[in-house]
Design goal:
Helix content: over 70%
Radius of gyration: 19 Å
Order of helices and strands: HHHEEH
CATH architecture: Up-down Bundle
Largest sheet: 2 strands, antiparallel
CATH class: Mainly Alpha
Number of helices: 4
Structural class: mainly alpha
CATH topology: Cytochrome Bc1 Complex, Chain C
């Protein structure tokens, strides 16, 4: 098996922390969409509803901040050279999916922040209130929330592609691609 160069520890940590935050945020977002505020409140009570909203907003702000750090780290440290066994299509697909992740994750967080502010709702980071940036405008808020949701659906598709490709490289091709981002063991199968 090939033992390709790995991403740096900071790059691997950022990848996995962001992945966990994104999955948690998407799950909370799906609940918010499915139930709505009134449905959540009536089903789970006001305390749980507020916790879900605050957790979703906080994770969005964390994702935005960590993605900006990730962009800076990538610019500063670069990335390992592609594994030589990758086909031309795999290289293009990988680069495209990764760029779309960067744009989508940053864009979705910004859209959520702007939509929340335009809706007249607090933009929260844990217990702190962040600047709203936009004045209240319910029509704009609705449009921004729609865009926020569409980006979430696109990200779900990217996640499926990304995980599917990782599994293919790990279990089928066994070419060391997935091990480059693993937190443990250098290239362990």
């Amino acid at each position: 098996m090939i033992r390709p160069e790995r991403y740096t520890l900071i790059q691997r940590l950022l990848h996995w922390v962001i992945a966990v935050l994104v999955l948690a945020s998407l799950a909370a977002g799906a609940m918010l969409y499915a139930f709505g505020f009134v449905g959540l409140r009536d089903t789970f009570g006001m305390g749980v509803t507020n916790t879900i909203y605050t957790a979703h907003k906080t994770s969005g702000v964390l994702i935005l901040g960590l993605m900006l750090v990730r962009v800076a780290v990538r610019y500063k440290l670069g990335v390992p050279a592609p594994v030589p066994t990758l086909t031309g299509f795999e290289r293009i697909a990988s680069a495209t999916v990764h760029r779309l992740f960067y744009v989508g994750l940053i864009g979705m967080a910004v859209l959520g922040w702007l939509a929340t502010a335009a809706g007249g709702f607090p933009v929260e980071f844990f217990s702190a209130r962040l600047p709203g940036i936009l004045p209240k405008n319910e029509a704009l808020s609705a449009t921004l929330f729609l865009m926020h949701g569409l980006v979430a659906i696109a990200l779900l598709g990217l996640i499926a592609l990304h995980v599917g490709a990782a599994m293919m490289h790990w279990k089928v091709k066994r070419d060391g691609v997935m091990q480059r981002m693993m937190l443990w063991g250098a290239g362990r199968e």
